[in-house]
Please model this.
Amino acid sequence: MAYIEAEPCAERRLELLSLFCGCGGLDLGFEQAGFHTALAYDRRASSLKSWNHNFESGTALNRDINELTLEQMDADYGGVFRPSAVIGGPPCQGFSLANRTGSLADPRNKLVERFFDLVISLDERAPLEFVVMENVPAIVGKRGGQIVEKQTQRLESRGFEVTQVILDAANYGVPQSRRRFFLVAVRGCENLEISWCAPEPFSDVVSVKQAIGQLPQPVYFDKKFRAADIPFHPNHWCMTPKSPKFKTGELTEGYVAKRSFKTLKWDEPSYTAAYGNREVHVHPSGKRRLSVLEAMIIQGFPREFNLLGTLSEQITQVSEAVPPPLARAVASAVVKYFDQQQSKLNYSGPASQASYPSFGSSTG
Model:
């Protein structure tokens, strides 16, 4: 996969709080850009197991975000917790157009407001340097009910400069067309005409064939299987093909029958990974569905990443994840923004530097 090269020095490894972390796709992208997630929270046990398995430091804990307090964070951290930034992707089912019954009254929508309540509380304790929230594009539409505008006003009143942008993961090295909304709030600096800019798209688009074309055949699900029983990679397994469609030859490349049977094309990026009831997209061969590993790679996860849990739990984790290369692109754009601030402040002289967050110099 292609990545934005912006490896910062160790001085920039500022601590983050990750809310609604899932298995860690957003966190992985920020780690790759040089940040460090100190605390992460979610309610899905299998996702937390995967997170803690894959990250060498930091801790992901099962906490109800509605009940989470600064005092609880301090206890979990082992001291007064003053993160440099907050990132996260609150549940989006209430906003998603894929949810036909979604509405403004969906209780999950309240979690977006709760995300920003915690942001404001932490910022009151010690000023944050930036905030990144990821969600579905529909959150800024009718179903969003002005929620983004309300939270933007709250952030701007505290001195943040807020940018709203919709990015397609296919433009950032991910072999999948996946449009996502990002709210990026950065701490502004007076008298400097600098704004956060969305990352530039990559020149090359990665196809399904480039991503998974060389993988061996996966194994079919067996209740008795353990991870060690699956050769090549512990996530390279899939459901046994049962539908007659897998035998009739009608599942040709690009064949689509609602969400249940979306057959991928070898020479194009995948459709958006949104797998309900284990309805993983069909492999371009038309003979089976994608393995969990193939779905992970199409989401942009590196092969050394390992999801834990049952087959169904693994599919849910990969479906709900933020593609790490897309997260890294956004994180690297944050690094670039503060590097530009630092350069201007250095040029202006030391008297202006007291208000600048200490990111250090980029080595990338």
Q: What stands out?
A: The chain has ten helices and eleven strands. The CA atoms of residues 196 and 247 lie 51 Å apart. The two ends are 17 Å apart (CA to CA).
